[in-house]
């Protein structure tokens, strides 16, 4: 079965039991999670979130990219969130490459130079990457200056979250 | 109790029961979900994903932004994913504003012009926004040309997913 069909079949079962259709658009907990896209991290489960609780922004690394700042700004200005919780994790793919290496791999696999000159936002130090992203969120002119920002590392082997910033 | 403490307390309970510490870095289902950050959408639950199954990229709108393409490229070139599933949803905040309106709100609330001239990627037509993002993913030089791409709308009132692209 194609994954698309599996998703639709699993969703039919989910929708049949769904009881949270009355939640409003603004997040109940007035917070946003910024986390890595890693398949082993399910942020809502890891911190006990219910449907409607928090915005959840995810990208490769859980980085405070320009696009993450766009999302945080929309979340705060239009939907009333006041906190940002940054979650990176152990064994992250972002620790394993440099910009030059991925650009060369794109060239080799896809035959295009489009990867060169781009910043794919890899990092060499996991805890420092969290501190850097917390600092980027705090210093952005598009983020409210009184925003509460915390940073954590999630351990993919134990499921444990540790605060680091 | 601060939200930070609630997260850490909920995580202690989660970690105490955690049994999925043996999953490898590459996603088992070789796919990536691109979904909106909305608090009412928990993508993994909505399509039946287990820990380790799929990358999950999320931002305001679930848009195929330049940063989402960065994440997809890393997911494909370094971690072997072959499919992208785009999920937008009903009652999305992105349907409610224009770039000028949010830039003016940022100016009013935060006293900065930093919002002007930016594209916050709002949209006026939900299904069309899914088709647009599917097309953007398919046409990116950083995405493999044989990538399987599907697009869906998730109904926040019923939990139901409908394929639209």
TrEMBL record, chains A, B:
GO MF annotations, alphabetized: carbonate dehydratase activity; zinc ion binding
Catalytic activity: hydrogencarbonate + H(+) = CO2 + H2O
Coiled coil: none
SUPFAM superfamilies: beta-carbonic anhydrase, cab
UniProt cross-references to InterPro entries, sorted A to Z: Carbonic_anhydrase, Carbonic_anhydrase_sf
Cofactors required: Zn(2+)
Cited CDD domains: beta_CA_cladeD (cd03379)
Top-rank taxon, per record: Eukaryota
EC numbers, comma separated: 4.2.1.1
Pfam families tied to this protein: Pro_CA
Amino-acid positions noted as binding Zn(2+) in the UniProt annotation, renumbered to this chain: 36, 38, 89, 92
Family affiliation: Belongs to the beta-class carbonic anhydrase family.
PANTHER family, sorted: CARBON DISULFIDE HYDROLASE (PTHR43175:SF3), CARBONIC ANHYDRASE (PTHR43175)
Name of this protein: Carbonic anhydrase
Organism: Gonium pectorale (Green alga)
């Amino acid at each position: 079965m194609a994954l698309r069909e599996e998703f639709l079949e699993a969703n039919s079962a989910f929708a049949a039991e769904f009881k949270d259709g009355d939640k409003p658009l603004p997040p109940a907990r007035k917070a946003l999670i910024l986390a890595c896209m890693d398949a082993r991290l399910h942020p809502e489960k890891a911190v006990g979130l219910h449907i409607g609780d928090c915005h959840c922004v995810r990208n490769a690394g859980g980085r405070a990219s320009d696009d993450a700042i766009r999302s945080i700004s929309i979340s705060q200005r239009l939907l009333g969130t006041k906190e940002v919780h940054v979650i990176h994790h152990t064994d992250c793919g972002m620790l394993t490459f440099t910009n030059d290496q991925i650009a060369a791999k794109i060239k080799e696999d896809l035959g295009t130079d489009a990867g060169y000159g781009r910043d794919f936002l890899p990092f060499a130090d996991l805890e420092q990457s969290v501190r850097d992203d917390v600092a980027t969120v705090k210093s952005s002119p598009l983020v409210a200056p009184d925003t509460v920002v915390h940073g954590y590392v999630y351990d993919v082997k134990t499921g444990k979250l540790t605060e680091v910033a």
